[in-house]
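Question (not urgent): is this output format expected?
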Amino acid sequence: MADDVLKGYRKSIDNIDAALVCLLAERFKVTQAVGRHKAEAGLPAADPGREEQQIARLRTLAEEAELDPEFSEKFLRFIIDEVIRHHRQMQG
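Got this back:
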């Protein structure tokens, strides 16, 4: 029989993972709208200044939340790179 404490932790992790997926889906819906707007307005797919601001902001939030800021930056850079890829496809 599985450990009930471990089962409880795993259920919490499963709930958090589900929330993360839903949040990422919502974020990508908004970034898709941004990509369409950029394509229609002739704006570049990437905005390095904005990206650096976001990374700095998220690193600070990570530190405040006691999360490794290096990890949070890697995670955000992965998301940003994917968003830029989508934006470039829209401009294609």
